[in-house]
TrEMBL record:
It comes from Salix suchowensis. Belongs to the BetVI family. Transmembrane segments: none annotated. CDD domains: Bet_v1-like (cd07816). Residues 1-147 form the Bet v I/Major latex protein domain. PANTHER family: OS08G0374000 PROTEIN-RELATED, PHYTOHORMONE-BINDING PROTEIN. This is Bet v I/Major latex protein domain-containing protein.
């Protein structure tokens, strides 16, 4: 049975900057903002939009996984919504049969964005999947706020 967890996070980054970072620039930004967690990333298929496939090779701080492939399963530039589903490795090698994270970005001010996060997953193991996603968002915010785009 697929379960779902949701949360909201406010960040001090303009919605267009955040959208670009999560879309077209994701493979370049993630290793720079978390080099000990993600050693490198590449776009295997696509152009950053719908059906793009990324591979994230994990760094020395992630001991239980070596890589994760994710497909962009939702991509709506008008409403700033992107969904990334794990298709190989990573969570799928650790008890999950389905793992998808969806981000919805809504401008709440000139330099403020509300991020609605939904994680849908199916697993035989009970695990709180939200903390690692919140850490990822905070890393992204810090990276973008320090002028690196």
């Amino acid at each position: 049975m697929i379960k779902e967890v949701k949360t909201q996070v406010n960040v001090g980054v303009e919605v267009d900057v955040l959208w670009k970072a999560f879309g077209k620039d994701l493979k370049d930004i993630v290793p720079k903002m978390m080099p000990n967690l993600v050693k490198d990333a590449d776009m295997l298929e696509g152009d950053g939009g719908l059906n793009t496939v990324y591979i994230f090779n994990f760094g020395p701080d992630i001991k239980t996984m070596t890589y994760q492939k994710e497909r962009v399963t939702e991509f709506d530039e008008f409403i700033h919504r992107i969904g990334l589903e794990v298709i190989e490795g990573g969570h799928l090698n650790h008890g999950f049969s389905h793992y998808k994270t969806t981000f919805q970005f809504t401008s709440t001010g000139e330099q403020e964005t509300l991020i609605d996060v939904t994680i849908s997953y199916e697993s035989q193991v009970e695990e709180d999947t939200m903390p690692s996603t919140l850490v990822f968002i905070k890393h992204m915010e810090n990276y973008l706020m320090n002028g690196a785009t």
